[in-house]
Write a structure and sequence with these properties.
The protein has 459 residues and is mainly alpha-helical. The protein contains 19 helices and 6 strands. The chain has a two-stranded antiparallel ribbon with strand order 1-2. Strand 1 and strand 2 form a beta hairpin. It is elongated and about 100 Å long. The structure holds arginine. Arginine binds next to helix 6. The site of arginine has 11 residues, from helix 6.
Length: 459
C-alpha cells in the first residue's frame, strides 16, 4: 500500500509505478539520506517536536539500516518509489510507530535537495584531488623537458618555438582554474535546504541552524521556496565538469596527433594503448580518444539539466528527478577519466629529436628573424616584410632561414650579419623569450614553481 493511499481509490498503475520510480538510480544516496534523517530526528527531539526517546529510537533504527545496506542485506523496492520512501518504510517496519514520526516537518522536496547537496559535497573534493594528481604528472613532465624544443602552433601551422615544458604548463594552468572553479562551486552550494519542507517551511519550531551544523553545512539556505526549487549547484558543477572535460579533450586530441606517425612527438606506453583486430602494425591511442569521446556525455548532462530547469515554475516539479542520472553520470565519467588520463600521460615517452626536427623545418624562427632586424633599428612592419620575402625565397630554393647563406640574407637587407645564425638558433629563440609566462627555461621554471605552490597549498 502506498503512503498516500488515504487520498486514492485505486492502486497505482504498474506502468506508472515503474515510470515514476527513481530508486533504480537514487539508491546511491542512501548514506546522505540517512545522515539527513538522523540530523532531522535529533533536531525534532531537541526541539520537543517529538519525544527525545522516540528520536533516539529513530536514530538507532537508521544506523542499523545503514549498516545493513552496507552489508548488502537490504533490498529496495520499486513500490516505495525512491530512496527516501524506501528508508522511511524500512524504518517503520523495523521500529514501529516511532518511525512514523520521522517525516514530521519535512518533505521529500527538502530531503532530496539536502541528499544531493551532501553527495556533491563529497564528490567535489574527490575530483579536486584527482586534478591535483594530474598536476603532479604535468610538473614532472615539465621538469624533465625544460629544454625540449618543439613547434608551437596557431591554426595547427607551425608558428613559434616553444618547449614541451611550456606546453605542459599551459595545461597545468587550465587545470588550476578547474580546481578553483570547483572550489567556488563547493563554497556556494554549502548551504542546507533541510527544513524548507515542501516549499513553505513549517509551523513546527524547526531549528534549521542546528540541522545545517549537524550535517556540516555553513548555514541553512535563506528562502524555503528557493531551497526546494534550486538546482543551480548541480548545473554549476556540471558546467565546471564540462570545462574540465573540454580541457582533457583538447589535451587528448593533441596526444592523438602527437603519437601519429605524421608527428611522432610522443610514444604511448604499451600498457596505455591498444592494438587492432586486423591491422598487425597498429598501436592506437584509445584512452585519449575515449576521454575525448566521453566529453560529450558530460556536456550532454549539462544540457539535460539546463533544459529540465528552463521552464519549471516554482517550487518542486517531478521533472527535477531527472537531475540525478545526469549529475551522477557526469561525476562518474570525470572520476573515471582523470586517473587513467594522468597515468597515460605519466607513462608516455617524449621524442625530443622529432620535436626539434619539426621545429627546424617550418620557418618557426621567422618572427625572431624580424625581431633581429628590429633590434638593429628597423621598424617592425618593415622587418616583417623583409622576412616574408626571405621566406618566400627559401621556399623556392628549398632552404630554411638557418641554412640560408649570409650573402642571400644581405641581398635582401644589409642589416644582416654573421650573428644572425646565433639569433635564429632554436635554443636562442626559445630562451630569449624570457617574458613573464613565456617559454624560456627560467620563465617556465617560475611557472612550475607557481603550480607546485598551488598544489602544495591544497595538500
Ligand atoms: N525522487 C524525487 C526526486 O528525485 C524525490 C522528491 C519527490 N518529491 C515529490 N514531491 N514527489 O526528485
Amino acid at each position: 500500500m502506498k503512503l498516500w493511499a488515504g487520498r486514492f481509490q485505486k492502486e497505482t498503475n504498474t506502468l506508472v509505478n515503474d515510470f515514476n520510480s527513481s530508486i533504480g538510480f537514487d539508491a546511491r544516496l542512501y548514506k546522505q539520506d540517512i545522515a539527513g534523517s538522523i540530523a532531522h530526528a535529533a533536531m525534532l527531539g531537541k526541539q520537543g517536536i517529538i519525544e527525545e526517546h522516540e528520536a533516539e529510537k529513530i536514530i538507532e533504527g537508521l544506523k542499523a539500516i545503514l549498516a545493513d545496506i552496507e552489508d548488502d542485506k537490504v533490498e529496495f523496492s520499486l513500490d516505495n518509489e525512491d530512496i527516501h520512501m524506501n528508508i522511511e518504510a524500512l524504518l517503520t517496519q523495523r521500529i514501529g510507530d516511532a518511525g512514523k514520526r520521522l517525516h514530521t516537518g519535512r518533505s521529500r522536496n527538502d530531503q532530496v535537495a539536502v541528499d544531493t547537496r551532501l553527495y556533491v559535497k563529497e564528490e567535489i573534493p574527490v575530483i579536486i584531488k584527482q586534478v591535483l594528481d594530474l598536476e603532479q604528472v604535468l610538473i614532472k613532465k615539465a621538469k624533465a623537458n625544460l629544454d625540449t624544443v618543439m613547434p608551437g602552433y596557431t591554426h595547427l601551422q607551425r608558428a613559434q618555438p616553444t618547449t614541451f615544458a611550456h606546453y605542459m604548463m599551459a595545461y597545468a594552468n587550465m587545470f588550476k582554474r578547474d580546481v578553483t572553479r570547483l572550489e567556488d562551486c563547493l563554497e556556494r552550494l554549502d548551504e542546507c535546504p533541510l527544513g524548507a519542507g515542501a516549499l513553505a517551511a513549517s509551523t513546527y519550531p524547526l531549528d534549521r541552524f542546528a540541522t545545517a551544523q549537524a550535517l556540516g553545512f555553513q548555514k541553512p539556505t535563506d528562502n524555503s521556496m528557493d531551497s526546494v526549487s534550486d538546482r543551480d549547484y548541480a548545473i554549476e558543477l556540471l558546467s565546471c565538469l564540462s570545462i574540465l572535460m573540454m580541457h582533457l579533450s583538447r589535451f587528448s586530441e593533441e596526444i592523438v596527433l602527437w603519437c601519429s606517425w605524421e608527428f611522432k612527438y610522443v610514444d604511448l606506453d604499451d600498457a596505455y594503448s591498444t592494438g587492432s583486430s586486423i591491422m598487425p602494425q597498429k598501436k592506437n591511442p584509445d584512452v585519449a580518444e575515449l576521454v575525448r569521446g566521453k566529453t560529450g556525455r558530460v556536456y550532454g548532462s549539462l544540457v539535460t539539466l539546463l533544459t529540465v530547469m528552463k521552464s519549471l515554475p516554482l517550487a518542486y516539479n517531478k521533472d527535477m528527478q531527472e537531475d540525478k542520472e545526469a549529475l551522477f553520470d557526469a561525476i562518474d565519467t570525470v572520476e573515471l577519466c582523470l586517473p587513467v588520463f594522468g597515468a597515460m600521460l605519466d607513462t608516455l615517452t617524449v621524442r625530443p629529436k622529432n620535436m626539434a626536427k619539426a621545429a627546424s623545418g617550418g620557418f618557426i624562427n621567422a618572427t625572431d628573424c624580424a625581431d633581429y632586424l628590429t633590434k638593429k633599428g628597423l621598424p617592425f612592419r618593415e622587418a616583417y616584410m623583409i622576412v616574408g620575402r626571405l621566406v618566400n625565397m627559401c621556399i623556392k630554393t628549398g632552404d630554411t632561414l638557418d641554412t640560408l647563406a649570409l650573402k642571400d640574407f644581405r641581398a635582401i637587407s644589409s642589416l644582416f650579419d654573421e650573428d644572425v645564425y646565433e639569433a635564429l638558433a632554436l635554443k636562442t629563440c626559445v630562451n630569449e623569450r624570457k617574458v613573464y609566462g613565456g617559454p624560456s627555461k627560467e620563465s617556465v621554471e617560475k611557472q612550475i614553481a607557481l603550480i607546485e605552490e598551488f598544489v602544495n597549498s591544497r595538500a
